[in-house]
Amino acid sequence: MQSGTRIERIMSLSKEGKSPSAIATEVKCSRQYVHQALHGKTKTEPKTAPRKPEYEELLTVSEAARFLRVTANTMRRWGESGVKDSYRIGPRKDRRFKMTEVLDYLGSCKVNRGHE
Q1: pTM of this prediction?
Q2: What's the rounded Cα separation, in Å, for the pair 1 and 8?
Q3: Staple partner for 84: which of 8, 32, 78, 103, CB 3.0–4.6 Å?
Q4: What does residue 4 show for φ and ψ, rounded to 5 degrees?
Q5: Average pLDDT of each block of 10 consecutive residues along the chain (116 residues)?
Q6: Residue 67, CB half-sphere, CA atoms under 13 Å: how many?
Q7: Is there a contact between 16 and 22 (Cβ–Cβ < 8 Å)?
Q8: Residues 75, 77, 81, 83: is their CA dihedral positive or negative?
């Protein structure tokens, strides 16, 4: 939506008797921007909120173990031997596993179907 169009929409909704809060919700902008637009103090598009940095979800040893249905000690051994990459965080050097890597590992496992 272009700035002029947004300001015109704000003015139109204001003439209909809507509150600044209702206008902000409908136009998807801040109440402060609505106030500035109504008082002619803005001619530009409001700044958008900064994007949250993308991050990978980290699992604790026990969370990863429960997910893969193995023991916590097995996860620790896999981390030490390199079967699964683990990451050390914090002053206690707690071990964490990336969720995406755990899912990749799970997808690469062969299913044992017994005597086929």
Answers
A1: 0.48
A2: 11
A3: 78
A4: -60, -40
A5: 70 88 85 82 61 78 92 92 86 92 83 62
A6: 19
A7: no
A8: negative
Both tokens of 9, joined, read 């929409």
pLDDT of 65 reads 93
Cα 3 to its chain centre, rounded Å, is: 28
φ/ψ of residue 101, rounded to 5: -70, -35
pLDDT at 62: 95
Count CB atoms within 10 A of the CB of residue 102.
20
Q: Which two tokens stand for residue 92?
A: 């206690």
Rounded to 5 degrees, what are φ and ψ at 86?
A: -125, 155
CA 74 distance to own-chain centroid: 30
Residue 77 pLDDT: 93
Distance CA 48, CA 19 (A): 22
